[in-house]
Amino acid sequence: MARKIRDHYEADEVLAEPELSCWLCARPMGNVTEWHHPVPKSRGGKERQPVHPICHRTIHANFTNSNLEKRFATAEALLAHDEIGRFVDWIANKPPDFNAPTKDRR
Asked: Can you spell out the DSSP letters for 3-52?
């Protein structure tokens, strides 16, 4: 029985998933990805964005769902806020899976 020599087939290629980056800080995602609703689900939001756990905790530690819906539903609006801007500057050089305690500032 003759063996078939396999040439290159498209099906043999492993399709690499596009590398996710954090919606807030734009760093590459690590091992854990959380999903943030820019407009909270409780306010009718359906869109989800990938964020690091520490970024997600920081967003919710600083804003209520009402604030997120009305004033901070975009990454640009969040980054313009002083506390979030400082946080993103601080975390910019940390590894993707960096974790630290987050204080509730509301």
From this structure: PPPP---GGGS--PPPPPB-TTT-PBP-S--EEE-SS-GGGT----EEE-
